[in-house]
Amino acid sequence: MGTGRKANLEVDIGNRRDNMVVSFSDPRVFDSQWSLGIDLLRTERNYDDYDQTQLGGGITAGYDMAELFGSWAKDMRFSTRYQLVDVEIDNVSPDAAELVKSEVGKSLVSSLTPSLVRNTINNPLDPSNGSRQTLSVKYAGLGGDEEFYLIEAINQIYHPLVKFTASELVFSLRTRIGYGETFNDDTLPLFERFFPGGINSVRGFKNRTLGPKDSNGREFGGTKQLVNNIELIFPIAPSAGLKGVIFHDIGEAFDDNQSIDFGELRQAVGYGIRWTSPLGPIRIEFGYPIDKEEGESSFVTQF
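The chain above was modelled as a monomer; its predicted structure follows.
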């Protein structure tokens, strides 16, 4: 009714993942430049060696930075999110890493996450020009059972190289850096650790299979990560929303006693097809690890 307010109910049920989210957002609270969002959630993830359930909610307030600093802050927005979530780790496999086994049980996480976003991307579902930079710092310790901080920075760039009649050849670059640490001698919680690999990370490796492993090759996640994706996106059938992509990915996660070592980053190349369907974007991509190790697949299909 012209207000821009949005209410959302999401129910997503599957063998590996269940999501139930209820949310409400107002982009202009009392006709001001402040935005406000409230959500309640219950999510369940069934990983190979454990299950993770989260139950809680959060509130997010944001403000348009151009209103404070003028034109140089155009397209920039600051927001702060407070979240209270009860996290449970259970059904741990007997073959899981010791760190995973030690995380069994429930913990209450009370966190505050300020973030700054600059966004000039022309189309969020099918971008071909512009960039998006995100910097966030999650601080947990406002009550609850966990005390840690998590810093994440993401840079995305889309640039058209060649323009055709109805489409473009687009260069894409995405870089993500993350670092987390506790305020005591505990390890970073399992549900905040980095597990690279998969279609939204380093393609060519199965989901969550990169990062630190114990002596038996069992993953337990890293406290820091670096992932970089380079793509060339080209038209196949523009009128049908069909595009192709070739990519080169590089990335890895590292543990507390390790620093980010560029020589240890894993690499993969591949290609894929993307369709902007009436139901939303659909991707199928095929990755080939450049530095395949024993036990890893030489070819990975991801959808």
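The CA atoms of residues 196 and 210 lie 5 Å apart.
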